[in-house]
Amino acid sequence: MQTSLIFFIIEVLGTLAFAISGIRLSARKHFDWFGAYTIGVVTAIGGGTIRDLLLGAPVFWMSSWMYIAVTGLAFVIVAALKKGLTSNSKWLYLFDAVGLTLFVITGIEKSLLYGYPMWVAIIMGTITGSFGGVLRDVLINEEPLFFRTDIYATACIAGGFAYWLVILLGGSAILCQAMCAAVILFLRWGTLRYGWHLPMMRERVPAQKSSANER
């Protein structure tokens, strides 16, 4: 019972954080209220919906009105604090990082609850944490963070492996969650603060022949 309550709280907080990031970005794009709320909902439930469909589980937000209501609360928060939240891009990254962290944890734990191995749980955690943001960015015509050079999905995977390591060492569930969160937040902080990124794929353009050689 206590584990279910903790899982529910984490999921609600993740929903709130992701919904705020989606609604806030919609405000910068000058969406109307309905459009902004819709983007908030998609951001908050998109990754978890894909996860549940892949796991063959009941889609989480269809069992309770709470998640739609939490998105409404996020809308009220952004509307009330619009100037402060929309004028500084750091707020977007803050709420996105918090939502990312919480949803990776819920994705991992739900996968384990349904009896899947840890490697599947890490993939589901990555999907839960990042695909709501992918859908958000596509709908507002932005290049998804998932595909940029920023350490984003990689941070989810690293957090998943940290979670796994604590399990192998016999740590508690709380410690698993804490280590997963610490790794993800640290990598996202390093990305934003110091520009950490993965190597980029570059197309090699063949050197053009000189006009003399062509003759």
Task: Sum up the structure in keywords.
74% helix, mainly alpha, 215 residues, 9 helices
Structural class: mainly alpha
Strand content: under 5%
Average pLDDT level: 84
**Sheet with most strands:** none
Q: SSE string, helix = H, strand = E?
A: HHHHHHHHH
Give the uncertain stretches in residue-range form: none
How would you characterize this protein structure?
This protein is mainly α and 215 residues long. It is 74% helix and 0% strand. The chain has helices at 2-28, 33-55, 66-80, 82-86, 89-113, 118-139, 153-168, 173-194, 211-214.
In short:
This protein has helices at residues 2-28, 33-55, 66-80, 82-86, 89-113, 118-139, 153-168, 173-194, 211-214. It is mainly α.
Please specify the SSE layout and strand pairing:
Layout: H1 2-28, H2 33-55, H3 66-80, H4 82-86, H5 89-113, H6 118-139, H7 153-168, H8 173-194, H9 211-214
